[in-house]
């Protein structure tokens, strides 16, 4: 039985979570690169496949560490990072998520398909979409399964736990909620590529952070993140040129 030690979400703990996340990503990248080099020395492995494998491994490690932190902290820690039921009814929460999803993706489409082309920057897509396009064209079932596991389950849960559960929740104890969302979103966007799409990632993070505050539940933030990635995955399979 887990002992409830009444653990507190502190700024130090929040910073540690961010450092651990990036450290895990670096470690996973090294492990994955050398593993491919050692086990398949005769085959050239694409950087996209290495990237997906590395991100999936790091995400799993981070989620394991998150589970360990929860297990040692006790149930009093759960609501501090949003692991609780939504404070609004589930049906209203889901409708709110869908409305926010449609709105943000419409604005993202305007940015990528209307604003960027006016500055001769048409056709720009994110790192995840580049991976998907490459794997769809050159990979097999195993590679695509790994990407979908990363994009639809591991990635969204891991990022929402770190950025909304730890970072935004910790900041909201010290500054107004809107400021916590802004700071979190700046850091979130900076962790994605390319830089020219940072306004889109910032928009997504602002929306997901607001959903978290509005519902009080990390589960709702995870839901909209999953649905967002699912939207672009469906778009990718359909071959429509509105990838972000």
pLDDT < 50 stretches: 1-5
* Beta content: under 5%
* Oligomeric grouping of the chains: single chain
| Large-scale geometry | globular
Please work out how many helical segments DSSP would assign. 8
Mean pLDDT: 91
- How are helices and strands ordered from N to C? HHHHHHHH
Sequence-ordered SSE layout with sheet pairings:
Blueprint (H helix, E strand, L loop, with lengths): L10 H29 L7 H27 L16 H29 L8 H12 L2 H32 L4 H14 L7 H18 L2 H21 L6
How would you describe this structure to a colleague?
The chain is mainly alpha-helical and 244 residues long. Helices cover 75% and strands 0% of the residues. The protein is built from 8 helices and no strands. Helix 1 runs antiparallel to helix 5. The longest helix has 32 residues. The chain is globular. The N terminus is likely disordered.
Search tags:
mainly alpha; 244 residues; globular; disordered N terminus; 8 helices; single chain
Question: Concise description?
Answer:
By secondary structure, the chain is an all-alpha fold. Helices cover 75% and strands 0% of the residues.
């Amino acid at each position: 039985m887990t002992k409830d030690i009444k653990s507190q979400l502190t700024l130090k703990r929040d910073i540690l979570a961010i450092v651990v996340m990036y450290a895990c990503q670096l470690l996973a990248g090294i492990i994955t690169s050398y593993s491919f080099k050692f086990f398949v020395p005769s085959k050239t492995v694409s950087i996209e496949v290495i990237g997906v494998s590395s991100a999936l491994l790091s995400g799993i490690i981070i989620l394991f560490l998150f589970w360990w932190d929860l297990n040692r902290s006790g149930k009093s820690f759960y609501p501090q990072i949003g692991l609780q039921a939504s404070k609004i009814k589930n049906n209203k929460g889901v409708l709110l998520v869908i409305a926010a999803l449609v709105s943000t993706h419409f604005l993202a489409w305007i940015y990528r398909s209307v604003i960027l082309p006016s500055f001769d920057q048409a056709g720009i897509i994110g790192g995840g979409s580049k991976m998907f396009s490459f794997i769809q064209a050159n990979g097999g079932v195993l590679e695509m399964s790994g990407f979908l596991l990363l994009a639809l389950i591991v990635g969204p849960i891991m990022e929402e736990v770190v950025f909304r559960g730890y970072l935004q929740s910790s900041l909201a104890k010290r500054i107004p909620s809107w400021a916590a969302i802004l700071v979190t979103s700046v850091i979130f966007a900076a962790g994605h590529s390319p830089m020219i799409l940072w306004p889109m990632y910032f928009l997504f993070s602002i929306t997901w952070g607001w959903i978290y505050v509005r519902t009080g539940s990390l589960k709702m933030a995870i839901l909209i993140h999953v649905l967002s990635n699912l939207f672009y995955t469906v778009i990718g399979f359909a071959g429509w040129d509105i990838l972000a």
